[in-house]
Design goal:
The chain has about 110 residues and is mainly alpha-helical. Helix 4 runs antiparallel to helix 5 (about 50-70). The chain is about 85% helix and about 0% strand. About 5% of the residues are buried. The protein has helices spanning about 1-5, 15-20, 25-40, 45-50, 50-70, 75-109.
């Protein structure tokens, strides 16, 4: 069964989707802020009530466009900054723990 699924995996790389796929975390991050705005405006209900099939197609098109937009490099900068800050803080914490451990072992000798 697993081998059957593996045979369905696309092996060819399409440059746009490869670059966009490397930025999926930024798409998830920015959707968190966009979804409440869409719900507040009532765009989702309006489109579905407008015409069931056409509204759903429009929602999928809007979702695809928003995903392509949020996967652009410019939307990745805030996450890179946050990641850099977290890494620096983590390194300081690890360094301080290492120094404490080294001082304890030096004091016991």
């Amino acid at each position: 069964m697993i081998l059957g699924w593996c045979s369905l995996i696309w092996t060819k790389q399409i440059p746009f989707f490869t670059k966009a796929g490397s930025r999926t975390i930024s798409v998830y991050f920015w959707h968190y802020f966009l979804v409440p705005v869409i719900a507040y405006i009532g765009l989702d209900k309006t489109l579905v009530e407008f015409s069931a099939l056409l509204g759903i197609v429009c929602l999928f098109a809007i979702g695809f466009i928003v995903t392509c937009l949020f996967s652009m490099k410019v939307f990745n900068y805030p996450l890179n900054f946050i990641s850099t800050v977290i890494t620096k803080v983590n390194n300081k914490i690890c360094d301080s723990k290492l120094l404490k451990k080294m001082s304890k072992t030096a004091n016991t000798k």
